[in-house]
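Today's session is about reading a structure prediction critically. Students often jump straight to the picture, but the first step is always the sequence itself: look for stretches that repeat, for charged clusters, for runs of hydrophobic residues. Only then move on to the predicted structure, which in these notes is written as discrete structure tokens rather than atom positions. Here is the chain we will use throughout the hour.
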Amino acid sequence: MLEAPEIHFAKRGNVHLAYHVVGIGPPDIVFVGGSFSTTLAWREHASARGLRRLASFSRLITYDQRGMKASDSIDFGAVPTIDDLVADLETVVAARGIENPVLFGMHNGGAVAAVFASRHPVQQLIVCNTWARLEIADDYPIGFKARELDRFGKVYEESWGEGRISRYWALRQPEIDTAWMELEATARNQAVVLFQMNRDYDIRHVLPTIEAPTMVIHLENNRMVPPEFGRYIAESIPGARLALVPGEDQIFLHNHSDEVINVVQHFVTGTQTPFVDHLTTTMLYTDIVNSTSMTVDLGNERWSQLIHQHNTRMRGHIKKCRGHEVKCTGDGFLVAFDETDAAVRCALDALESIAGLGLELRAGVHAGVVARMGNRDLAGVEVHIAQRICDRAEAGQVLVSDTARKACGGSGLRFEARGTAQLKGIPGEWEVFEACR
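Below is the predicted structure for this chain, in token form.
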């Protein structure tokens, strides 16, 4: 999986809840992110890496709380209570036919998960950086003073969409446009209501009734919700364990996913294994033959127009064959495919189409295990092999590795042997084949 997972919808009354399913269980982990868009998290490199790690040892279900990104907006005439949010979680769990899930709640999602666990059988309960109640009370001295919450509510009202609040949640990462992320996650009027909703609930009476094995995780220097809030929850749930992990963020996925998920994995599976963010994919490299000399002959303006037409046609073929554009190199593309035969068909179609522009294209196809780099890029020796195979192709030719050829068995595609080759910088000799209609 190179891009964000497919969005599904569960429906409760008139409310549509967007959710995603990744990985293979057991166990089934339902991640309850609360007022945090998991749809956006799947599109942002650091957060998506944390979610993929969870999915590496589970079937992972993530969803957007109502009011967030892909789920329906909040009805201001019937602002949801904590019970409504629990019922939404029940709807998502039922939609996947899950019994005895592991619930992993973050932020206010921890309270939603806790209330669910008090009412239904769950295998385990995990909450991270959450609270039972926000405001101070005579019997709850750790809470925030009302004026502090009023002041923060004003910040939501006046600043949501400027990136300021996201920087409260997590130390800023330079590559993330926090202002854009806030507005993509929810509208300003929704954010104000969500804050008030999170301020109002109080689940302290629920905590002693929870019977599931429980792990409470809190970042020990959390700048937004101090660890005293997590300690209170751990002390209130019978037999609960508390893990304080290094870090300052409220939304741990941006900067502290490994530290938190180390605890989660050991609690859920009894083991802790290193996570390498790899995937198996098929790579298609394309290249315009003699692009440099053509640029000189045609001039910058004409060449730019021709490249624009080339890119448009290529992206049409990529979309038709369900490929994932990794990057455009200026005079070619690197594209990832889940199915190897789709990569070969895309290459053959593209060669014919691009020839109609007066350009000669060559292509190379190889399948292997690669590492994710950033939001979309791929790295590793298998990527270099695909590029080197493309480099060996002549104009109008699609060359594939033996690995790619074997993966196309039963596809109806034909391949003709083109001998063995030494690929620059790659040890050994490699069998190459030409793909034919």
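Discussion point for the tutorial: The first strand starts at residue 8 and ends at 12.
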